[in-house]
């Protein structure tokens, strides 16, 4: 499991560093919302082909939960993935803070109400995070499952994450990934930390819903 742990740690670190880094170091004035969206998506594409052969490149506790619920990994293995992902996210956020001129004041944290980029409230944020995560894991489980287009999995998953960000950055900053939200929030503290619960609970609910569609065979190809 050492290789999988290391791969998930590095992969999640890269996702946070590139994705949140684009928001903090590039910003809306320079790379814009589209640039930030592609930073998250392309980070996934890169890691999917870089560490995918080692760990499957979950780099997201919600994805690991979905894979577990779909019957494709054990609970013990999921736990190892979760630890690696949360540690990796914190390291990625620390690297951004060390580079950013504002230090650890802003690290691309997620939020709702006043902390939402577009001023969206709790209800809107919860609906978006649940639905977007469910869609995300449906793509992941579909493209990596039996009969899926595995050679193109990285592109499919990365582009899905990109469009999720294009739609949702103004709503919550987009989480769909408890680790991605955890890393910045624990370092920024304050409101980001107090709102972190939503970006843990909602993605996990969305992941469970998406996974159960596969577990119940509702999304299984007919023979």
UniProtKB/TrEMBL annotation:
Keywords: Cell membrane, Membrane, Transmembrane, Transmembrane helix, Transport. The keyword Plastid does not apply. It is a multi-pass membrane protein. Pfam families: MIP (PF00230). GO terms for molecular function: water channel activity. GO terms for cellular component: plasma membrane. InterPro entries: Aquaporin-like, Aquaporin_transptr, MIP, MIP_CS. Its main location: membrane. PROSITE patterns: MIP (PS00221), PROKAR_LIPOPROTEIN (PS51257). The chain crosses the membrane at residues 7-28, 34-59, 80-100, 120-143, 155-176, 196-214. It is found in: Cell membrane. Belongs to the MIP/aquaporin (TC 1.A.8) family. This is Aquaporin Z.
């Amino acid at each position: 499991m050492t290789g999988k742990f290391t791969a998930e740690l590095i992969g999640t670190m890269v996702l946070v560093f590139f994705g949140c880094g684009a928001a903090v170091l590039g910003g809306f004035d320079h790379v814009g919302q589209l640039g930030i969206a592609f930073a998250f998506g392309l980070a996934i594409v890169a890691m999917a082909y870089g560490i995918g052969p080692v760990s499957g490149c979950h780099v997201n506790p919600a994805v690991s939960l979905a894979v577990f619920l779909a019957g494709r990994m054990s609970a013990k293995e999921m736990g190892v993935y979760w630890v690696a992902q949360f540690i990796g996210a914190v390291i990625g956020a620390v690297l951004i803070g060390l580079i950013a001129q504002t230090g650890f004041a802003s690290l691309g944290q997620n939020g709702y109400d006043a902390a939402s980029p577009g001023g969206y409230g709790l209800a809107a944020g919860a609906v978006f995070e649940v639905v977007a995560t469910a869609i995300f894991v449906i793509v992941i489980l579909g493209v990596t499952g039996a009969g899926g287009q595995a050679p193109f999995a990285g592109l499919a998953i990365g582009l899905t994450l990109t469009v999720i960000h294009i739609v949702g950055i103004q709503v919550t900053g987009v989480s769909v990934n408890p680790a991605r939200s955890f890393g910045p929030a624990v370092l920024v503290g304050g409101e980001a930390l107090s709102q972190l619960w939503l970006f843990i609970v909602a993605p996990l609910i969305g992941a469970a819903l998406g996974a159960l569609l596969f577990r119940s065979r509702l999304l299984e190809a007919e023979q």
